[in-house]
Specification:
Order of helices and strands of chain A: EEEEEEEHHEEEHEEEEHEHEEEHEH
Protein name (chains A, B): Branched-chain-amino-acid aminotransferase
Bound molecules: pyridoxal-5'-phosphate
Structural class of chain A: alpha+beta
Oligomer: homodimer
Number of strands of chain A: 19
CATH class of the largest domain in chain A: Alpha Beta
InterPro entries (chains A, B): Aminotrans_IV, Aminotrans_IV_CS, Aminotransferase-like, B_amino_transII, BCAT-like_C, BCAT-like_N, BCAT_family
Enzyme class (chains A, B): transferase
CATH architecture of the largest domain in chain A: 2-Layer Sandwich
GO molecular function (chains A, B): branched-chain-amino-acid transaminase activity
Largest sheet of chain A: 9 strands, mixed
CATH superfamily of the largest domain in chain A: Aminotransferase class 4, branched-chain amino acid transferase, N-terminal domain
Family (chains A, B): Belongs to the class-IV pyridoxal-phosphate-dependent aminotransferase family.
Chain lengths: 364, 364
């Protein structure tokens, strides 16, 4: 797959949105990347084309049997002008794990990272540079076979679209309120919970809207078998500071293995803090809180980076965490991660990759 | 929603496929039904248009968060020329149950049945009339909001497409071989198993292809919690004749409530046969087989109607059912159901609805 990526120039470029109005995933850039798969040719015809509608047969697999995987990562504009990606190889590795579960043919991870870099280089003027802002990168693959009857598709499309974004939850460092869901279930062992696939999110909407109606920001999922053990938040993994240790649910097949989760664990260990990946019962957590041992709670994810949790509700029990404020460790993790991501802080763990505009420049 | 359905004439009609070559879901008719939803207008602009590609923004919800529901039913051509639908109201009722779980706005069930009838009337020449053949009807709804960030879509599209089909498993009355899946899980209570939504099918592909590699036709799913209790087959509900009784797994929130299942239960009761909807452990089932009490096994679904099971494998245990042949009760159910569906047999339970071509005729 050492294929060259062709470039199709747009007739007209869009007006860029106001830096203050970005929100999350509302605006899309001028170009997108596209690549097709057929049984005969494998992945082929990689190209950067003007952003625009895709046209599919109404019988396409994606509309009926949901064969889909996606990823989410960001490009950051450093103060010195460099463009940085944060561990893009990790996202591509996960994309292939998702593909394997969803019967989607594997991608060449290195080639797709290259495609991301080319696309970002083309769209460099779209990378916002205010604190908390970045260019969100969304690669996704859909099955496009036009045939009914449940079967793995024989044709696929991989697309990459870009969206300049602000922070996911408005002001990302203001603590969120979380509701422990005890009726609806997100995933179960043997299912697709560890994969980044659309069905997981469709299944989560009901609980998410219920939690919002009750005045909460996000849902904390429990395991699907016993409804006792903590899994993750809507689009984040979850961490608890218990006295001087940090606990997070172990990867058990039903939790998404977050890139931010992995990075937070590495950073904490790097700092000499004890991290325990384990099965955590919600009962035990609330006991720890009662005994004043629960010092901080935070979510981790590409969109929000670190999102402190100020308030937790489970059945009739409520916990106010860290007095409803952002804890010290949460703040330090946020500052360090965003520091590394934006090139302000030394990248000791070798996590960033530069997008070289000259080198990545595509010929027209 | 007493809206009138507009009709857009196609420039050219397709050549119809050979009656002997239909297969399942490979050919589509000349027209499709389409209707849009926005928060302001609700469901609006119902129309019958030439079958053709739909064009969507690459950020559309369906490509990322999988908000989708679908249905499947059939139109039959009776010997006397009448066109019959089988319990279309049941499918629309289930579609709304699926919508409720997936945060999709409800449809007007009666109106969509009317739309189905109009579309089938327009496409009446596409209804095949050989034994086992019919016109498969696939209504589906997709979220079309062009915005990232997990949220329920504010825009939707409902489409109905039609496909002339033969029997689902080739010769539908030759018994199938079934593999009891003990690793992968289809659904769990609190999830979306009872809804007809694409994510359930995406999650099932891995086990389905595994079973095919092992030489089986279909997977029999166990419950997601204990991996002990029988749920359903890939795209069918499952029934067991134990001595003179018939058992089928009770609807428990993770099984699709099949229209054929419901009809089979009603027919059996009508015939004075005891039907038990209960929790059935796979262990108990295999014990019953050992004691020669398991007389017949069959799947039920719109596509295959009744599909006898000749062979079951669970871990190291194998059962040959009814000597690998089609049991008497399975045959009687198949003949009765297809008899009612095609107007050959008296419809004592009032299940069929006629599509009146003159009345449903649309103005151009
Ligand atoms: C369900 C879920 N869990 C966790 C995460 C966090 O993963 P990452 O840190 O790779 O963004 C995400 C979002 O990406 C998610 O959707
Ligand atoms: C998972 C599943 N179970 C059962 C069925 C049978 O339902 P029905 O009889 O309504 O076709 C289907 C197919 O429609 C299905 O997809």
């Amino acid at each position: 797959m050492g294929q060259s990526i062709t470039f199709h120039k747009a007739d007209q470029l869009k007006k860029k949105p106001d830096a203050g109005q970005l929100g999350f995933g509302k605006y899309f850039t001028d170009y997108m990347f596209e690549m097709d798969y057929t049984l005969e040719k494998g992945w082929h015809d990689p190209k950067i084309v003007p952003y625009g509608p895709i046209s599919l047969d109404p019988a396409a697999t994606i509309f009926h049997y949901g064969q889909e995987v996606f990823e989410g990562l960001k490009a950051y504009r450093a103060e010195d002008g460099r463009i940085l990606l944060f561990r893009p190889n990790k996202n591509m590795e996960r994309m292939n794990q998702s593909c394997a579960r969803l019967n989607i043919p594997k991608i060449d991870e290195k080639f797709v990272v290259k495609a991301i870099k080319k696309l970002v280089a083309v769209e460099q003027d779209w990378i916002p540079n205010q604190p908390g802002q970045s260019l969100y990168i969304r690669p996704f693959i859909i099955g496009t076979d036009a045939a009914l009857g449940v079967h793995p598709s024989s044709m696929y499309k991989l697309l990459i679209i870009l969206s300049p974004v602000g922070s996911y939850f408005g002001n990302s460092m203001s603590p969120v309120k979380i509701y422990v869901e005890d009726e609806y279930v997100r995933a179960v062992k043997g299912g697709v919970g560890f994969a980044k696939t659309s069905g997981n999110y469709a299944a989560s909407l009901k609980a998410q809207t219920k939690s919002e109606e009750l005045g909460f920001d996000q849902v904390l999922w429990l395991d699907g078998v016993e409804h006792k053990y903590i899994e993750e938040v809507g689009s984040m993994n979850i961490f608890f500071k218990i006295d001087d240790e940090v606990w997070t649910p172990a990867l058990n097949g039903s939790i998404l293995p977050g890139v931010t989760r992995n990075s937070v664990i590495a950073l904490l260990k790097h700092w000499g803090i004890t991290v325990k990946e384990k099965r955590i019962s919600v009962k035990k957590l609330f006991k720890k809180a009662e005994k004043q041992q629960l010092k901080e709670v935070f979510g981790t994810g590409t969109a929000a980076v670190i999102s402190p949790v100020g308030f937790l509700k489970w059945e009739d029990h409520v916990i106010k965490v860290a007095n409803g404020e952002t804890g010290k460790l949460s703040k330090k993790l946020y500052d360090t991660l965003t520091g590394i991501q934006t090139g302000k802080q030394k990248d000791e763990l070798g996590w960033t990759e530069e997008v070289k505009v000259e080198k990545e420049k595509v010929t027209e």
